[in-house]
C-alpha cells in the first residue's frame, strides 16, 4: 500500500471531481482522463475508414492495431487470440453461434452467473440439441469448486461455463483449478471475467481457460469488450465473417465489420495505467487498498445480526473483491437505497443485477434482490466510513 497514492489516482479520473460517491462500479466504472482525451483526439483528427493507404488512414490503421496489440499483451495473449466487440453479451452470443458440437453432447452451466454467461449457451444448446446440466453451490458456501463440479462431468461433457467472480457475491473462484478439472474430460472452459478484471490482473495463460471475457467499460475505459479464445480452442470456432475475408485469428472469425475504432485505439491508455509505471498503481497495491475498503464495510455489516452478506463475509482480498451485496431483516433493499439517497450523495443500487437465477433460485431472495455496494480502487476509506454512517441511519 505504500506506493498507492489515492489522491493522485483520483486526479486521473475527471468524473470523480463531483459531489457524488460512485459505488455502482460493478455496473460501470468511471473513465480515465487519458482515455477521454484520446477518444476526442481520434474523432478530431483521425476518424477515417480503416485499411486506407493515404496519410491519415495510415495513422488510424496503426492506432487500431496498437489497440489490439495492447489489449492482447495486457492479458498475456497474442492479438490473434482476441476479438473486441460491443459487449461481453454480444461477444458470447457471437461465440455461441460459431461453436460446433454434436447432438446429445453435454454442457455444464452455473447458476451463480450474470445471465450473459447463460443465455448464449442455452441458445447454443437449443440450436445444436445439446443437453444442459446445472452447476450450483448452495448457501452458505456459494463457491464453485472442483469438488462440486466433478460429479457433473463425464466424457460426454464438451463445454463448461462459469464466472470468475459473481457480480453479486464478490467471491473469487479458483479458475486454474476448475480449468484443470474441465480439461481432464476434454471439455472447453469458458469464463466470464467481467467482475474480476476491474480488480486484478488478467492472465489468460495462467488461468488456463479456453475462452475468457470482460468489458472495458468496467475497467476504466470505453464501452467495448474483449473475448479471448486460445489458438487451440479456435479450432471449434467456425468463422462467421464474409467468405472472402481471412479466417486466421479470432477477430477474423468473430469480429463483424471491425470494432469501435475510437474505443479500440484508446485501450493502450488503460493498459499503461494498470500495467505501466508511475503513476499507475500496481495490482498488488490495488488489491491491498480494496481490501482495506471492503474491511470497513464488511466489519460493519458482519457486526449486525439483522444483516445477511451474500457471498463470503471474509474481509481478505485474496478471497473476494469489494463487490458487497447484502439484505436486511425488516427493510427491503429498495428502501435502503432510496433512504440513503435522500440523506446522502452515495450512489449504490438494489436488484438482481441480471444474476436472476442466482438471486431467485440459489439465494431465494424477493424481487427487490440485494443492496449492492461495489467499490473499486479509486474509492477512499473516508467514503466507505461515510457510507457506514449513512447505513447506521438508514438500517432499522
Ligand atoms: C458478471 C457480469 N458478466 C457479464 C456482464 C455483461 O457485460 P456486457 O454489458 O459487456 O454485456 C455484466 C454486466 O454487468 C456482469 O456484471
From TrEMBL:
Short name of one Pfam family: Aminotran_5
Residue ranges of domain Aminotransferase class V in the record: 21-385
InterPro entries: Aminotrans_V_dom, PyrdxlP-dep_Trfase, PyrdxlP-dep_Trfase_major, PyrdxlP-dep_Trfase_small
Name this protein carries in UniProt: Aminotransferas-like protein
Organism for this UniProt entry: Westerdykella ornata
Lineage: Eukaryota, Fungi, Dikarya, Ascomycota, Pezizomycotina
Amino acid at each position: 500500500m505504500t506506493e498507492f497514492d489515492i489522491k493522485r489516482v483520483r486526479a486521473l479520473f475527471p468524473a470523480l471531481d463531483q459531489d457524488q460517491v460512485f459505488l455502482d462500479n460493478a455496473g460501470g466504472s468511471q473513465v480515465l482522463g487519458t482515455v477521454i482525451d484520446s477518444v476526442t483526439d481520434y474523432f478530431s483528427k483521425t476518424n477515417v475508414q480503416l485499411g486506407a493507404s493515404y496519410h491519415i488512414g495510415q495513422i488510424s490503421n496503426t492506432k487500431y492495431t496498437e489497440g489490439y496489440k495492447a489489449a492482447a499483451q495486457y492479458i498475456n495473449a497474442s492479438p490473434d487470440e482476441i476479438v473486441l466487440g460491443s459487449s461481453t453479451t454480444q461477444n458470447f452470443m457471437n461465440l455461441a453461434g460459431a461453436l460446433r458440437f454434436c447432438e446429445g453432447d453435454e454442457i455444464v452451466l452455473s447458476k451463480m452467473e450474470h445471465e450473459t454467461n447463460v443465455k448464449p449457451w442455452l441458445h447454443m444448446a437449443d440450436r445444436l440439441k445439446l443437453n444442459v446440466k446445472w452447476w450450483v453451490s448452495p448457501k452458505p458456501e456459494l463457491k464453485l469448486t472442483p469438488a462440486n463440479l466433478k460429479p457433473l462431468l463425464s466424457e460426454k461433457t464438451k463445454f463448461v461455463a462459469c464466472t470468475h467472480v459473481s457480480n453479486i457475491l464478490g467471491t473469487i473462484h479458483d479458475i486454474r483449478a476448475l480449468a484443470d478439472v474441465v480439461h481432464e474430460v476434454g471439455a472447453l472452459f469458458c469464463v466470464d471475467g467481467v467482475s474480476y478484471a476491474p480488480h486484478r490482473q488478467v492472465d489468460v495463460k495462467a488461468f488456463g481457460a479456453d475462452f475468457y471475457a470482460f468489458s472495458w467499460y468496467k475497467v476504466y475505459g470505453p464501452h467495448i469488450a474483449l473475448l479471448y479464445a486460445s489458438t487451440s480452442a479456435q479450432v471449434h470456432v467456425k468463422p462467421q465473417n464474409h467468405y472472402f475475408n481471412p479466417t486466421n485469428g479470432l477477430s477474423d472469425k468473430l469480429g463483424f465489420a471491425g470494432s469501435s475504432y475510437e474505443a479500440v485505439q484508446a485501450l493502450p491508455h488503460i493498459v499503461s495505467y494498470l500495467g505501466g509505471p508511475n503513476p499507475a498503481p500496481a495490482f498488488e497495491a490495488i488489491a491491498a487498498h480494496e481490501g482495506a475498503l471492503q474491511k470497513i464495510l464488511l466489519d460493519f455489516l458482519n457486526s449486525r445480526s439483522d444483516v445477511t452478506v451474500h457471498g463470503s463475509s471474509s474481509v481478505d482480498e485474496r478471497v473476494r473483491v469489494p463487490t458487497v451485496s447484502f439484505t436486511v431483516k425488516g427493510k427491503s433493499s429498495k428502501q435502503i437505497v432510496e433512504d440513503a439517497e435522500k440523506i446522502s450523495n452515495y450512489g449504490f443500487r438494489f436488484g438482481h443485477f441480471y444474476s436472476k437465477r442466482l438471486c431467485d433460485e440459489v439465494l431465494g431472495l424477493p424481487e427487490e434482490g440485494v443492496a449492492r455496494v461495489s467499490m473499486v480502487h479509486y474509492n477512499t476509506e473516508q467514503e466507505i466510513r461515510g457510507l457506514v454512517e449513512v447505513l447506521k441511519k438508514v438500517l432499522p
